[in-house]
Each structure stands twice: as structure tokens, then as C-alpha cells.
Amino acid sequence: MPAHDASALLSTSVEPLRHGSAGQDRHYIVGRFSAWEGKCRSALKLGFDDAPDAFVLYLPSTNAPEIRAGTQSFPTTRATGFLEDLAYFDELTPHEHSNHIGLSFEKAAMVQQVSELLDGPVTTDLEFDRIVDLTSEKGLRLAALGHLVWSCLNLSEADRLSPAAIERLFQATMIALLEVAPNSYMPRLEQSLSPAVSWQVKRTIEYMHSNLAQSMTAALIAAETGTSVRALQAAFQRFKGTTPLGYLRTIRLEAARRALLGDDGSRLISDAARNGGFTHMGRFAAAYYQAFGETPSDTLRMR
């Protein structure tokens, strides 16, 4: 876990906006996570070429008027963090005389964490708001975790915690980020589903589980369970927060994962997919990776 130049590891180009020394970074990589401390002595522009598929959290150590991501500007103070998906911008301009701690989380790791918290697959893109409020109690704890991660890394190798311990700190920070930063899965992560599920939903779920490998449409499901498509859609949105077919996709992915993990399950990915109702292997593999942050082959190797 040696220290590196951050620009080398994040495939960045650094362009000073004035003459003189632009700044310095030290960067550490631990598994699917990384951290660095940026010190900008003068205004500079960071260009990201072939950036990793990751979310990056900036925790300012000093107040600065703003940070620019592409053509947009965002205020940055010690009370405000900045979160960015590297897939959506290729240029970052921190303000001069600003310091920050940066934390990077691979998207696959973040998706896997959401999947574990939901105890189910992630079926739509994970999206965050860019501004992170660090003034709430949870926000303060998130900032404290970020600084703890950095303080545990920025030591001599002899004094540093093991990579396994630091990975756990990153994971704790990731969970805190999911709780603090508004994101597309926050309602589900916070949701406490009512046990009083309607009879239409209960009957439909039983039918789905009994016929998992069969082809199904919303109209067929409604007809088999004695209700209308409209009533079924409304019931699932109310009690499960998704559509009937969205729920079906979720339980199919869960069934395939159980088959790949179980000692008595299939050792062939194609069998697990077909038994779960997937007929196109390429689409199954893509949906599985999006849902669990790992490939079916990765899951099979965990046995």
C-alpha cells in the first residue's frame, strides 16, 4: 500500500492556471478503494482521461469559494462535501489555496454494498446528488470517517493498519455515504415495508415463485391471479415500491444467485440463469453484475 502520485493513478493531467507550483497529492490504493490529500497552492485544472468507473467524494479541509466540474460550479466549505461520478465529467477545477481529502469508491463495490443492505439485487442505476451536507449528525460522522481513513493511511508502513482493516473503514465510510448523500436508493434503504401486504400482491408473489422459469407478462400474471393489470400495478407500487415485472426480475436474480452459491445448486451458470427465467445469457450476465456488483463467475468461485 505505497504512496503514489495521484495524477498517475487516476489518469489525470494537471494544468496550472497560473505560473508556479500547482500543488501536491499523495495517493493510496486499497483494493477497490483509494484515498488522497490534495493541496492546491494555486488554481489548477485536473483532466481525467480513461478515469475509473467510480464515485469520488471530496471533503474540503479549508473553505474555498467553489469547485468546478466541467462547466458547472459548486460551493465548497468544510460544511459541504462534493460527490461526483467520474463517468459524467472529465475535468475538475479546485480553487487555489484549497485543501481536500479525496476518497474513491469503485462503482461495483458501491453496488455490492447497496445489494447487501437491501438483501436483494440493484436493478436500476445508482445516482447521487453532487452536494453532501456535512453539518448534520450523520454528515459529521461521514466527514470524521473520511478523515480517519486518511489518517490511518498516511503513516509509515510499519505504523499502518492492515489492508483488511482499512478496507473495513472504507466500507463503513461507504455505508455512511449512502445514508447521508441523497441518492436514488435512499428511499428503499430507509423504507420499512408494511407487513399488511394486499392479497393481490401475496397471490402474485406465490404465482411468480411457482412459475419462475416460465415466460410471464403483466397481463398473464394479472389473469392468473384474478385481478386487473392496473390494480396489480398500483398494489405493487404501494407495497413493494416497484412494478410486478420489476419485482419478478428481482426474485429471478435472487434465485439465480442462490443457485450459484448453494452447495446443492447448479455448477453451470447457464442452468442457474434458465431456472431463474433468463433465456439470454448476455443480458443475464449484465443484469447480474448491475444487481450484485460481481459477475456470475465471481459468485460461483465463492462456493
UniProtKB/TrEMBL annotation:
InterPro entries linked: AraC_XylS_family_regulators (IPR050204), Homeodomain-like_sf (IPR009057), HTH_AraC (IPR018060)
A Pfam family of this chain: HTH_18
PROSITE patterns reported in the protein's UniProt record: HTH_ARAC_FAMILY_2
UniProt domain HTH araC/xylS-type: residue ranges: 202-302
Keyword Signal carried by entry: no
Keyword Transcription regulation: yes
Keywords for this protein: DNA-binding, Transcription, Transcription regulation
Example GO molecular function: sequence-specific DNA binding
Domain of life of the source: Bacteria
Name of the protein described by the UniProt record: AraC family transcriptional regulator
Origin species: Sinorhizobium glycinis
Lineage summary: Bacteria, Pseudomonadati, Pseudomonadota, Alphaproteobacteria, Hyphomicrobiales
